[in-house]
Amino acid sequence: MIKCNVTINGIVSRTASMRTNKEGKSYIGFAVKTTIPAKAGGCKQVEIFVSKDGTDAELPSYVAGQRIGLKGVLTFRKREENLYLNFHAESVDFLPENERDAIEGTIKFRGTVGKQVEKKRDKRGNPYWVFSAFSTEKHEENFSFTWVRFICFTAEKDGWLHPKA
Known about the structure:
Blueprint lengths: L1 E19 L5 E12 L5 E10 L14 E13 L2 E12 L8 E8 L2 E10 L5 E13 L2 E11 L13
Parallel strand pairs: 3-5
Antiparallel strand pairs: 1-2, 1-4, 1-6, 2-3, 4-5, 7-8, 8-9
């Protein structure tokens, strides 16, 4: 399980519509595009599906092309080779202070550490740890694995940080 408490700043890419979940509860659904840093100083645009409790009266507020800020919980779902980013918004800011695309917050990861845990040093000689870990998710009869690369900026190795045997 990968769960993140984050703030997202991005552009509405699909106009909002009312949807219904499996339990029959209605919610507002729309998509937001934002840019995240990638390797070698580049950037990658990602699309995030957003759900938010709300009513029909709120739909006109979510217009494609509009910049918004969102606070809530981001989860990752993997189906075959596709990775989906799903976000449940707790609050929406239609006039965000910052015009910069961003996803910022904390991650809660439940999974297994990979086979390598490396201690490295930055340019100033400060130690840090680099490792990969994966989370497993079952969908129907199939399992999918999502790998995440972590960098831990502490000098001491935490007790839970051991490579898989």
